[in-house]
Amino acid sequence: MRNEKLFYRDFEIDSRAINKEKRSVELSFSSEEPVSRWGASEILLHGEGNVDLSRLKKMGSALLNHNANIIVGRITEARLEDKKGKAIIVFDDDEDGNRAMKKVESGSLKGVSVGYMINKAREVRVDEEWEGYKGPAYIATRWTPYEISLTPIPADATVGVGRSLEGIEIERTEVPNTKPEESTMEEKDVQRIVETALEKERAALPGLIATAVKDAMAEENKPKMRITVEQFDDLSNRASAISPEAELEVSKLARSGKTEVEIQKYLLDLRTGKADAGNTTKGTEGEQGKKVTDEDRAKLVRSLKSPRVAFAS
User: Fold this and answer.
1) Same domain? 154 vs 287
2) How far apart are CA 254 and CA 277, in angstroms?
3) pLDDT tens digits, one per residue of 70-94
């Protein structure tokens, strides 16, 4: 009867490895071939530091069908070779041993099954890779073979699927903590960040106005315009030297059908203080806007002394 605490894997005896004179057979009892277990691949590594062969070497006995009461021989050698576990079994000269030897020679008993325990394993998750192995997988980095049995029919390699991983030391790749840290900023720090963001918004206002103006000059608005695009750019440049509000007012005048001369007069009135940046005169749209400050007027005077684009003659 099988030990329910062990896992099992099965192999086949090569008839060429039977030595009748020595009453022995050399066989493979383990490999790195993946076996399906726990919904993933189970892989037994076969490096010198991965397999503990001491139990097989000191207490190794060959059983029949994993029955501890039917010992058919002794294990005289256990080793690792070509990423496989190999052993030599010498049959006992008794009823059980002789019967097992004859069945191995005839080929009616040619299955090999190893019972083993995993001590330490590396979990490789889906989409991960470790040492050339892709997940999902459990890679046994430390395991111990407990017994080798001769079996007439190879057992199901998935035995133990329903068992838990309890008792096995599992190594996992650490997943970075993606949870955002709680804010420890004081109220004054938050206020400073808000003010900085507002300053950036104010700085971007002229560009936003220019974009809005260009959108307003779409195909459906062109019939209302009485100035060319070049004239509009010229007037907008002059207005932007005053304030964003003045630039926006120039766009309103242009869209309402004002001529270049009329818009120039509006800008000149701003220079002399006769008009407000947000109030176009009675003949425009009659909207009351923000008053132009002394600083705005000073900027206008400086811009007119050294304008970016000269007034048309």
Assistant:
1) no
2) 15
3) 999 999 999 999 999 999 999 999 9
